[in-house]
Amino acid sequence: MNDQLRRRSVGAPAARSALLTVLGEYVLPTSGSAWQETLISALGRLDYTPQAARQALARSIADGWLHAERRGRRSRVLLTPGTATMLTSGAERIYSFGRSRAWDGQWLLVVLRVPEQSRHVRHRIRSQLAWAGFGSLGGGVYVSPHVEREAELRTLADDNSAAEVQSFHARFGEVGRLEGIVGNAWDLDGVAQIYHQFIARFQRLRPKTPEAVFQAQTHLVHAWRKFPFLDPDLPETMLPRSWPRSRAQQLFETKHEAWYAAARDYFTSLDSVAEPARARRLRGGVTAAASRPRRTTPAAGFSRHPKTSLGGGPESSGPRPIAHVDAVVRSPSP
Fold it and tell me: What is the pLDDT of residues 142-187, one digit of tens each?
């Protein structure tokens, strides 16, 4: 996944981060495109100024995340293939995250070696490992209970020729305490605090109007899509008692299902309003003609979309900030 896109998915509340949530939740599952005015209006409903919304769109187009097509005096904004792929994989990770799973006890160990003169490469790789849920044991050694993520390491090594990356499969032995390793590698207290903030924010939220439902749903998805990157998704046996993930996950599923249809309909109404008037008239004329009863005598001169989601992500930030990943992932030793 593009590292900049990933950072925008889970970063601080900014218009571009909110735009990714809107694209993943409302644009990706339908046509893959929307009128520029629709996206500006949607961000406006999330308390971003028109200037901030336009800047977010312009920068996203300039960076190749989106593509704009002129249609008359208007612009239709389309997802590029890379962005569509990122949002699709994010959605799969977001909606499967938090459910209990079996673990066979195997760890994925990574040994990272980077020359001293390539510190920028070391920093980039350490950040990517943190995004993937690896914890640092120090000395360039990282661990994860997700052996299936080894494929990501191949890309990591290929993209950084200055780095030497080696992976091992291992089991914890009889010496030492597993709890100590978990506590040193990940800041679980910090993650739990963000889960509690999520629960407090959304459990009593009862939006009454279509616009309020759209706002609530977008904020809900944006807040939840951060957790696959913040939470290392450790097996239940390694977690503290009363770990809040399952409670937060149930809350997310319940609220998302309850608000899904109304939020999607509201966004569709924004896109309909932004649709050029001539296209609406043509579409309306076809609909009206189709609903008219057929003549029995010819007149003179004539013959005869499923529920999916993000980046997850899919990574809105609404006005209320969510802690950045750096606050909850232990910084590896240099």
Answer: 999 999 888 877 777 666 567 788 899 999 988 888 888 888 899 9
Instruction: Tell me the β-bridge partners of 107.
Output: 170
pTM of the model: 0.74
- Provide the residue type at 271 as one letter: D
* Final residue in a domain of this structure, among 146, 171, 196: 171
For residue 80, how many C-alpha atoms fall within 13 Å in the half-sphere facing its CB?
13
Please tell me whether residue 4 adopts helix, strand or coil conformation: helix
The DSSP secondary-structure symbol of 27 reads I
- Cα separations in angstroms, 86 against 29, 183, 233, 283, 314: 13, 31, 20, 33, 8
Are both 3 and 53 inside the same structural domain?
yes
Beta strands in the chain (DSSP E): 33-35, 66-71, 74-79, 107-113, 135-138, 141-144, 164-170
